[in-house]
């Protein structure tokens, strides 16, 4: 097992990882920017190293500084959290070259899944169902028209190097296609320095369903069930659930088994999430994230398994603590992402939190790095905490969530708490009846 882990992140996830390390008796080092000297993870860690000024590229994305911090403190492993360097293959390779363990998959696996065309090709080869579309990048308009006619309109054009929902264009007819292709290519070129695009069938009312997987790096793969993250705004997840209200037990184990087998065949190591769009009983692979996800606590709530412990175990060579048959799904969990934003306009609302009171009681978990008197720096993303609620079934979970939201107090800044108080009382949400466009439509109506 590791002696000392360096946590290369900030905010709630740095604290989340720190807690797992403490439980496992591992010493912790955190790195931080000058803007985060007062952060909770800095206060609670055994050691901390200031690695640079507030802008992320000079601190949390600064590989040299982070490697130097490992050398100075004698850390033998790095946990990257999510975001920042968590899916940076070069970072994983550099750490390996310094004999420091990256708590995540190999640089090669990160690279494959970071290229959307390569990822889709790999998924297909591994028996994962994919969205019908072009086999790789589109070379010209003629090929695009041929593929689109074959799969049927509407189609979506996506950037191979894409991310964050950028470089995507929908075409409803052949007449739309040329323009969509040109726009997608130039957007992709500008945003990612690579104008390769591919084409796929556009699904009109899908849900976003993702499967949590783990590989032990020695040919074993398991799945921890799925999460439904269909409630999104601008492709950003807002509310996540486990299990999905849309799946039955047969679909759950079918897609879970496919993913677990794929992970085993790939020889993958560590945590991963295989993301699908789901429509009319069918799953369509969209991408794989090779890291821990923001929404992992809903999976922990229904399985009772600490996924960060598992990440650390696997990276240290101790293997997974569970076999597939040990993973049981118990009840229902929902996570609300609480952002320091105006609940209507979503404009960021940094500033000082004058009072912070979190709900408690059975089935409630709050993962947050903030506290009363904490000043939110304006440099980073606006997530200030996650409320995760568990109940024996979805109805009980929703009752408890409503109560927990009433109890939650964040004064001094605007937060998205009022949005969740509205959502929890909405009949479609109560019925679990929503697709990936539901939230945007709801917000547009301004109800
Ligand atoms: P990114 O990596 O940029 O986030 P994804 O491939 O994960 O791109 O897609 C982001 C979102 O775009 C999906 O969650 C979904 O809302 C939408 N999307 C992607 N592909 C399709 C498709 N074939 N049909 C309909 N919507 C899609």
From TrEMBL:
Enzymatic reactions: N(6)-biotinyl-L-lysyl-[protein] + hydrogencarbonate + ATP = N(6)-carboxybiotinyl-L-lysyl-[protein] + ADP + phosphate + H(+)
Ranges of residues in domain Biotin carboxylation: 1-444
Record keywords, A-Z = ATP-binding, Biotin, Fatty acid biosynthesis, Fatty acid metabolism, Ligase, Lipid biosynthesis, Lipid metabolism, Magnesium, Metal-binding, Nucleotide-binding
For this protein, the record's SMART domains field holds:
Biotin_carb_C (SM00878)
Domain ATP-grasp, by residue range, is: 120-316
Instruction: Please give one Pfam family short name.
Output: Biotin_carb_N
**Which GO MF terms are attached to this record?**
ATP binding; biotin carboxylase activity; metal ion binding
Gene3D superfamilies reported for this sequence: 3.40.50.20, ATP-grasp fold, A domain, ATP-grasp fold, B domain
The top EC class, named as a word, is ligase
Answer whether the UniProt record assigns the keyword Ion transport to this protein. Answer: no
Q: Which GO terms describe its biological process?
A: fatty acid biosynthetic process; malonyl-CoA biosynthetic process
Q: In which pathway does it act?
A: Lipid metabolism; malonyl-CoA biosynthesis; malonyl-CoA from acetyl-CoA: step 1/1
Q: Which SUPFAM superfamilies match?
A: Glutathione synthetase ATP-binding domain-like (SSF56059), PreATP-grasp domain (SSF52440), Rudiment single hybrid motif (SSF51246)
| InterPro entries, sorted | ACC_Biotin_Carboxylase, Acetyl_CoA_COase_biotin_COase, ATP-grasp, ATP_grasp_subdomain_1, BC-like_N, Biotin_carboxylation_dom, Biotin_COase_C, CPAse_ATP-bd
What's its EC? 6.3.4.14
User: Subunit details for this protein?
Assistant: Acetyl-CoA carboxylase is a heterohexamer of biotin carboxyl carrier protein, biotin carboxylase and the two subunits of carboxyl transferase in a 2:2 complex.
Q: Briefly state the protein's biological role.
A: This protein is a component of the acetyl coenzyme A carboxylase complex; first, biotin carboxylase catalyzes the carboxylation of the carrier protein and then the transcarboxylase transfers the carboxyl group to form malonyl-CoA.
Protein name from the UniProt record? Biotin carboxylase
């Amino acid at each position: 097992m590791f002696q000392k882990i360096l946590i290369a992140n900030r905010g709630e996830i740095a604290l989340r990882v720190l807690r797992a390390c403490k439980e496992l008796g591992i010493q912790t080092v955190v790195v931080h920017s000058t803007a985060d000297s007062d952060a909770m993870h800095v206060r609670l860690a055994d050691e901390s190293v200031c690695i640079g000024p507030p802008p992320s590229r000079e601190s949390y994305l600064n590989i040299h500084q982070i490697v130097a911090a490992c050398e100075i403190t004698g850390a033998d492993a790095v946990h990257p959290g999510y975001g920042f360097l968590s899916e940076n293959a070069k970072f994983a390779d550099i750490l390996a070259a310094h004999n420091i363990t990256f708590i995540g998959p190999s640089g090669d696996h990160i690279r494959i899944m970071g290229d959307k065309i390569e990822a889709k090709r790999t998924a297909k080869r591994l028996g994962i169902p994919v969205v019908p579309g072009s086999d790789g990048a589109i070379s010209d308009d003629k090929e695009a028209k041929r593929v689109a006619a074959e799969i049927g309109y509407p189609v979506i054009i996506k950037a191979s190097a894409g991310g964050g929902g950028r470089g995507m264009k929908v075409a409803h007819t052949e007449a739309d296609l040329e323009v969509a292709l040109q726009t997608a290519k130039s957007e992709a070129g500008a945003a990612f320095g690579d104008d390769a695009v591919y084409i796929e069938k556009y699904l009109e009312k899908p849900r976003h369903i993702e499967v949590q997987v783990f590989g032990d790096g020695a040919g074993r793969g398991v799945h921890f069930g799925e999460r439904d993250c269909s409630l999104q705004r601008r492709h950003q997840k807002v509310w996540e659930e486990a299990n999905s209200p849309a799946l039955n037990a047969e679909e759950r184990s079918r897609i879970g088994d496919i993913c677990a087998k794929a992970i085993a065949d790939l020889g993958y190591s560590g945590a991963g999430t295989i993301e699908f769009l789901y429509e009319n009983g069918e799953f369509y692979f969209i991408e794989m994230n090779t890291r821990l996800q923001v929404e992992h606590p809903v999976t922990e709530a229904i399985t009772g398994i600490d996924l960060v412990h598992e990440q650390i175990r696997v990276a240290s060579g101790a293997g997974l603590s569970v076999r597939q048959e040990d993973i049981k799904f118990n009840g229902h969990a929902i996570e609300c992402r609480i952002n320091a934003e105006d609940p209507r306009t979503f404009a960021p609302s940094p500033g000082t939190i004058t009072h912070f009171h979190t709900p408690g009681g059975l089935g409630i978990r709050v993962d947050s790095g903030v506290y009363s008197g904490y000043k939110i720096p304006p440099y980073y993303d606006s997530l200030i905490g996650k409320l995760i609620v568990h109940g024996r079934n979805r109805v009980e979970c929703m009752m408890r969530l409503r109560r927990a939201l009433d109890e939650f107090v964040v004064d001094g800044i605007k937060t998205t708490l009022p949005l969740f108080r509205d959502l929890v009382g909405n009949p479609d949400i109560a019925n679990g009846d929503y697709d990936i466009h539901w939230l945007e439509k709801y917000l547009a109506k301004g109800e």
